[in-house]
Amino acid sequence: MPLSEQQILNMKVKRKKILEAATYLFATEGYGGTTIKKVSEAATVSFGSVFTYFKDKEELFYTVVVEPLEDFSKQMLAFDEHAENPLDELKRMITNHIKIFSEINHYLQLVVQDIGQHERFRESFEKLDAFHDEFRGKVSVLVKNGQQKGLLEKQDSLIVATLYTSLLIGFRLNSTDKRYSDISEKVALSTLNIFGPIIK
Questions:
Q1: In a designed cystine with 54, which of 35, 60, 110, 164 is the match (CB 3.0 to 4.6 A)?
Q2: Where is the HTH tetR-type domain (predicted)?
């Protein structure tokens, strides 16, 4: 007998609660400190319910890292690397990225865990690494665009893109939510400098 619409909705809600609880626990207690029992208690579902959706803790961790990546990727890649005015596009891109990073915390902690233990979390790391390569590549093209138009200093565009991604992650991890919002506009202005804008 097929499931009713209400049953399907209930299952989606329960799965979402499990993922939210798991994201928080993996971020705050680490992979080793998180158990299925803790996740079920935090999500207020039965222990067995977790296994309805996820085979084991490893699959649950993979899901909380990889599933949000599609939406995150779309947001992060929403800039025009071939913009007519690359300097203006860089400013827009930086402001947007800082806003995105200001709204994530626990997810970013998961990403850092995954990268730090990439041999353990090989499959999810491959997804993160592929996104990182795509992102750096697109930023690099925008930088080259600015250099060709004489708006940015000549330097290795891929290195600049790598410094940029490192800055975003490092700044967010070193800031509380309040401290981040208080200085984010100043950070956006200073971040532009790593791209080497030429003052005329």
A1: 60
A2: 12-72
